[in-house]
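ESCALATION

Customer reports they have been waiting on this structure for their group meeting. Please prioritize. Original submission:
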Amino acid sequence: MKNQRDIKKQIEVLPDAPGVYYFIGPKLSANSYKLKAKDSRRILYIGKATSLKDRVRSYFVRDILMTRSPLIAKMLEEAEKVEFVQKDSVLEALIMEANEIKKYQPIYNSKEKDDKSYNYVTITKEDFPKIIITRSSGTYGPFPHGAELRQALKIIRKIFSYRDEKCKLTGKPCFNAQIGLCPGPCARRISKKDYNKIIRRIKLFFEGKKDTLIRSLELDMKKFAKEQKFEEAEQVKRKLFALDHIQDIALIRNDLVARSYKPGANFRIEAYDVAHISGKNAVGVMTVVSDGELDKSQYRKFKIKSDNPFVDKQGNNDTKNLKEILSRRLSHPEWKFPNLIVVDGGKGQINTARKVLIELGLEMIDVVSVVKDERHRAREILGLRDSTLDRSILLANAEAHRFAIGFHRKLRNKGFRI
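Update from on-call: job pushed to the front of the queue and completed.
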């Protein structure tokens, strides 16, 4: 059909990036359609995508009735063009999709699901509002996919902790308050004024006003710094960092699910190791394996800055060194984020790495560790993984050890105090 041929041509100019797409039907008069758009275009269907190009292209596979519902096949027959809005992240596309469906009420979104099968985010009306998922109606929505909404709330909650239905105002901290996902109105840790400031910022995010949200946080950070409240300023800085990395968060999660941890399509593994002499003059390194091959252009070196006053019986403090290295590395948004992190050691090193990732809202990046025997040979790989990655994991780990020793020796030979 001519319409579909025209749309297929439009697909070629769609970006390989997150966003929201619109299938547009024939124009109608203002009297025949409840228009909310700038012109008389008829929006048939709205969806969100990790890759706009790949997602829209998927509608035009062979045997459409075998892969799509008859309803969507009918929608495609009526569609005359595709429009899109590119977003910085899949999470922002998810929220925009919900807002756009609510605004335009496209006929095929409504037919595809009845009202009770949609999900909404509801902010309750009380002194310390709760944020919960509801059906049929709510503050924000509709969200077509409940699992994606729940995952989105997990990401948002890492940035802006909030109260949910399990948080009772009893004077004792709820479970989420104990793990940092609730600011603690349950235990009287936060005032009504400060809590509602958090809620206002969550509202800005769900309304798609990310720029306004960032400006508000930046003002807070400058205010705290001016008042020499450096701990509070650092907390705000972390929120800004997490907001800047929402794209990485969403795409990493999508990549890991889609690839099932199998190498290919730029699957990036980063390995870390530390070299020192009895805990002193420590250095750390990062090595990279992309799609099973060493990528030496991506290697990084770190001189450990901390004084390490707490060490083990052998004078080492590898977990503290690892924490410093990872924190510094993840503060560089210009470096591509990894799909998998490899550390040297056991459960202590895994837990340290995971804690850093959780603090930065990047807990979807998996971590494995390589346990060595007394001759420093790989004995075991700990952590959730796909065995097809074992060769790449061991390669990255061995290369990190070699690179760390070489870096440390080079500095010693130059007579530098590291």
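Sent to customer with the following note: The mean pLDDT is 82.
Escalation resolved.
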